[in-house]
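ok so i was messing around last nite and threw this chain in just to see what happens. nothing serious, just curious
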Amino acid sequence: MRLSRLLCSALFAVVTPGTISAQQSLAAFTAGQAQSGRDLYQRNCAACHGIDLEGSGDAPPLAGGTFVLKWGPKMVSELFGLILQTMPPTNPQSLGEAAALNATAYILQRNGAQSGTDALTPGATARIGATTNSVPASAAPTQGRGGRGGAARTIALGAGSADGRGSANGIRGIAVAGTVRNYVPVTPEMLKGPPAGDWLIFGRNYQRHSYSPLSQIKRDNVKDLQLKWVWAMNDSGANQTTPIVHNGIIYLASPSNIVQALDGRTGDLIWETRVGPDQAPGYGGIRSIAIAEDKVFLPTSDAHMVALSAINGQILWDTPASDKPHPSTSGAIVIGDKVLMGLTGCARFDGEGCYISAFDIHTGQRAWRFYTIPREGEPGSETWGNLPMNNRAGTETWLAGSYDPELNLTYWGVAQSKPWNFLSRRLTPFDKTLYANSTVALNPESGKLVWYFQHAPGESFDLDEVFERVLVDIGDQKLSFSAGKAGVLWKLDRKTGQYVASREMVKQTVWDHIDPKTGTPRYRTEILEMQLNKPIHVCPSTEGGKNWQAMSYHQPTGLLIVPLSQSCMDFTALPVDPKSVNVGGAGERKFLAMPETNGNIGKLAAYDAETMNEVWRHEQRAPFLTAALSTAGGWVLVGDIDRRVQIFDVKTGKTLWETRLGTSVQGFPVTFSADGKQYIAVMTGLGGGSPRNVPAVIAPEIKIPQSGQALYVFALP
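result:
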């Protein structure tokens, strides 16, 4: 039995490096136990907690001084009991005693304890913080990677891993050789105005509408949809991807940085390239690749940007975005002669922080970098109070931005500060921590900031505003729509960043007021007065009223169709050691049902983009785990955690068609045409943090298969 890939949501936080020596006989373990625990951890836990136990946004660190503030006085048996009783979150108490002891032994070993001849037992009474012998977190094994400082590397055709990064089955390069025949280069004009049958960009167009002008599949005939083919995807990591489709060829990114070209009509594999490195189960999936000219661009899970030949899959260049080893699950967008990517995995006090990067599409050379935490002395730095750079973390950009070609501005959402709460950050709720929870508008040629709007100054509950920016023109107004985990729909002037309007789409109790002129939210009084180590009730939970499941703008009706979730939580802010590197979110959460929802976690709702009024809603027990996809055929498609794909009438919300797939329906569905026939492609997937962990707690009757990631393609008879 394995430790769940969903460890992220649990209190699986452990010891500071080197805290075990005193009373060693009471916490003895064998080398075999530690080795078994190490193998188990790397397969199933590193996905969320990090390869060196550093933690992440959803998962606390397993090493570092921050934990010792809470767990130092506790016994090893309590750590073992926590693992045994709460793991995995989707099926508590199913891990088994032996596996839980092995996991505990490995964690103790990684924190300085020495193995011996006596096995670890459930009754070990040694105090976790008994000693302070130190083992640096950097001593942990890390995924290899090549290159530093943004210098491009050209990779020869074929297998091999000279730079040490490796890939699945030890192959790096072309794993299956083939050629896309009669390939037509993707021009800048095609990206600005995609052909009707193509899906060239995450969200289909630069404006992120997730809308297709195809209309062969209509409201009247959608009931006749049939499954045409299925393609199994790699199960080694999380899957939240979006295919790219050009001239009937699907370019698909699978977990462990595998890119494939498939015939969209038949599902036949044309070529496959493995870029590496492998991914652990549960690790956040690559959400979008990009295409331009004759190249496909993959932002890898170790923060490289890699260019592949769209014709045969050859690796053309490979450039690290980060100057040091770094995980990432962001997406890519091509604008002009540059490909842009965000960065994730910034929940560390390492002084570097997060940034958006741009690379020349021909050479791979880095063109610019925009830091989402201002450097000390730069404008905005003062919003972090007196915190030094080494104590500023977070502000990831884990979804690719949108773009307005007329204004020549690219719009990105920025995630929350870390640690999550203002008390854990040792700040006040009035310290804004720019550019966290903001929309930033950048010049794509230089990376210079043109304007920003901060949706949630001082945000403190992991309710970030990082998601898609949907660009809509209404009359002479050029607008940007977005929504974050607080469940508020924001409307901004995208020329200036000025606030226009907002609308609460689910129950939220964090902000008691949003200024109608400036859009500045104000915390409710109880939050301003909250204390460390004392829970406070807030809605929504970190599942998010709105999360990465993107909305769709249905142009003919002027409706925004938004997948939403309804849940709440008791949130406890924890103290953080400012000298620690591994800090994570530093918050504990108890997930709860949202009142007045009749137990319905999932909500799909349509909003008039002009008035912001809700036009219709569909509520159900299971939350939605895909983006919304709408078409000129008058329907909108979404998938949910309970394996269902549903198609609704875009005007009324009436269900027109549904089917069930192998596991949770997850990711970004697309529609395309080949040889005059319209197809719909939908993914199933695993992983994803709170959007999966929360329903596991408050809707445990929903059973989710833990394998079966695949691409399903439907069409009319």
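not much to say yet. Residues 1-25, 134-162 have pLDDT under 50 and may be disordered.
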